[in-house]
Structure to design on (892 residues):
């Protein structure tokens, strides 16, 4: 925690800037989506529908009330794609990028906000970092578009094919999960491409690259194959990401998709394992997955992607820190550690707090929605986990829910994208810590 | 953590003593329950049924495969009651009590084991404490028996009535949840007494007294109404216990039992709120409660009672420490605190570890049972939460489960009663901590 001198008035923290930035973009996006030209019907969406869609796009969630391809016009889809790109990259990244490109001087306040937004370890070199992030993101998205274009051009013609390739490349890279394949069948996501290798591989690659975080790219770029030289955080992210793709894929292969032919079974198992930790596309009908499989997806959705990435959720590092904390307790070590690096005690407190917040909000939201909508609890929990993990997978109930449930999902999406701590730090004004004045007293747990 | 010099061989830790103690009593109990005279049929139970029942009794859980009243003979019921009393008071408490009463000298090792078993803050005065615990427990159980006797004597005659009063008093005080009312209708628990004020008040009082912990009694005895003078831990326990009785009762009153007449509604709401945090009696048919209500009960079951009590589960203090940790993070304090006392960082790591372990085991167990038995996930999760919280509430599936599921429940009951950390400390030999040798490195969470 840095302590900065500040005047009592007119002070706005970097956390508040991030929150206000997200809120403004959501509001502007909602108004744009209410324009008559945004919907195919030519009537414009209601405020609550527009707000839900804009929040879902900016928070890169992908939960939708209306099928994106059949309800929104090309203009509306363009707005949604723009909101995804802004939300995915982080509003501040975009803002400072523009400032940097336009040659204006960037102040310390902006740099510090940047640092919070991309979860960088320090303020130094933040502008260089931002340029690297922007360049990499655009390159990856364009490569993704180029690879996807032939498939979509074959299916939808040249113009629409290129638009589809761009839309899905950006949506996958930003882990947004919005799709336009609803023209085949509304809300069908990528199920019609479940055995198409190019679409499978490209979308999975984009999801993973987008989800491991900007700082991990830097490590990969700087240290290539020398894994030992990576930052501890990058090592943790890559290890956890790999594990959380492989293990669920094995489960899905053996227990969920056993009636499929071999090739489809492998693709489907792998894709359904990559997607729940915040991407939100699906190539299998999730309502047909067993309740145990749905619960596994809920756990993956709550876990989410990695910090400083386009992904939301509790974060892979949070889970890793908790596991490492447990191992240190089991082995009676005084400190938790990863790859021979000690984890600060403060980080463990933060991780425990985030874990508790996610579990509480996900359960409370699901129980309220299940109660007022009279739907099965597991279905409601699936939807709230999807919202708070900014995933966008759905068992199909979102369009039918009432306004209160939609508001709950909007709040959960916002919480999941902005990050619980950012939200709370923005709400509660900073104070010097004084807890240590109190004498220590033991309390027994467990 | 105390560090003690020890020889490499023949060393047995207090954690190992506690585990071995519980295991021996369970094994002896199982063998006794296999005797032909233990069952009404005169054939004796199978080993797996006897093991399940003995584990359930020693771990004061109350999950049963056979209805206690109709399957077991008076001898079998006596064995079960003895196992409940031993398990509830803690094996070590009993062992050392006997030693103390018989006038033998008690060594440091025994005192230190005692300390772990009753979660006392220090070794000093441990024998005096044990006598106080034993005296209080017996007094409370006898008072409970005396109050319940008239009701049961009216319903079942003098001899059976007194036996029933004793059985239910001990079972309630030890938070065991075993009952003999199955003579009216098997597995009906206390539903036939749902509007009987004496039974309601007495059982609830016994549950609460047994569940707040031995050390809290001491505080209440020493400081009577001077709440400010209480230990921080006692304050936390009483506050959390009160909150976790009141809030769920309000929910149950308004959302679950609204079709009942007023008096029954109040009693039922209150009783169903007191019982899930490890007692396990029920006065309402839980299969009729909504899924949201069942989820609320699952959360209460996982939370459990208070440390150093007859109750199991994750413990009220663990929940409180996590909430306090979250508040300290929100307010950017360097340390978590309660009632102007600082909580050691170590305790927060332990609490996060226990929370993670309980959630993981409860989910994993429920998912496996749901998968292999092909039952709804929420029903299976209800059963695993009941086992790991040593509660004993059931949606009625336990008797029908297969041997693998029974083994999973046995392991969860044992884990819940012994406490996850005791189990792991017993398995992993102590080592000096060396984690601090590593340099610290930041990692971003959430
Ligand atoms: K998403
Ligand atoms: K119980």
């Amino acid at each position: 925690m840095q302590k900065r001198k500040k005047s009592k008035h007119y002070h706005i923290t970097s956390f508040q800037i991030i929150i206000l930035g997200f809120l403004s973009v959501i509001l502007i996006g909602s108004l744009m989506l209410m324009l008559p030209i945004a919907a195919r019907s030519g009537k414009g969406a209601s405020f609550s529908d527009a707000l839900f869609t804009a929040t879902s796009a900016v928070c890169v969630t992908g939960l939708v009330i209306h099928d994106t391809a059949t309800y929104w016009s090309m203009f509306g889809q363009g707005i949604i794609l723009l909101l995804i790109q802004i939300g995915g990259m982080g509003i501040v990244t975009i803002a400072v990028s523009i400032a940097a490109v336009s040659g204006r001087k960037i102040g310390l306040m902006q740099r510090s906000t940047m640092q919070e937004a991309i979860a960088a370890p320090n303020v130094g070199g933040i502008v260089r970092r931002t340029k690297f992030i922007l360049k990499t993101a655009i390159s990856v998205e364009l490569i993704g578009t180029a690879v996807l274009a032939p498939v979509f051009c074959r299916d939808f013609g040249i113009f629409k094919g290129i638009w589809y390739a761009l839309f899905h490349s950006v949506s996958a890279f930003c882990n947004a999960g919005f799709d336009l394949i609803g023209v085949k069948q509304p809300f069908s996501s990528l199920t019609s491409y479940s055995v198409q290798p190019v679409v499978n591989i490209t979308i999975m690659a984009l999801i993973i690259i987008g989800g491991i975080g900007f700082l991990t790219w830097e490590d990969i770029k700087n240290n290539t194959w020398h894994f030992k030289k990576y930052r501890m955080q990058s090592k943790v992210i890559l290890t956890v990401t790999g594990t959380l793709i492989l293990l669920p894929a094995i489960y899905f292969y053996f227990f969920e998709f056993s009636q499929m032919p071999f090739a489809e079974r492998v693709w489907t198992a792998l894709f359904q394992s990559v997607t729940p930790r915040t991407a939100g596309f699906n190539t299998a009908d999730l309502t047909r997955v067993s309740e145990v499989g749905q619960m596994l997806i809920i756990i993956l959705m709550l876990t989410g992607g990695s910090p400083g990435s386009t992904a939301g959720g509790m974060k892979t590092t949070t889970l890793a820190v908790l596991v490492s904390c447990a191992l240190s307790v089991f082995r009676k070590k005084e400190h938790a550690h990863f790859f021979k690096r000690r984890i600060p005690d403060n980080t463990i407190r933060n991780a425990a707090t985030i874990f508790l917040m996610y579990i509480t909000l996900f359960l409370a939201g699901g129980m309220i929605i299940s109660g007022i909508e009279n739907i099965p609890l597991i279905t409601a929990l699936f939807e709230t986990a999807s919202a708070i993990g900014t995933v966008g997978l759905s068992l199909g109930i979102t369009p039918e829910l009432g306004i209160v449930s939609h508001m709950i999902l909007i709040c959960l999406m916002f919480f999941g994208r902005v990050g619980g701590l950012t939200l709370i730090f923005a709400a509660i004004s900073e104070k010097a810590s004084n807890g240590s004045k109190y004498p220590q007293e033991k309390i027994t747990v467990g």
Q: What stands out?
A: The two ends of chain B are 30 Å apart (CA to CA).
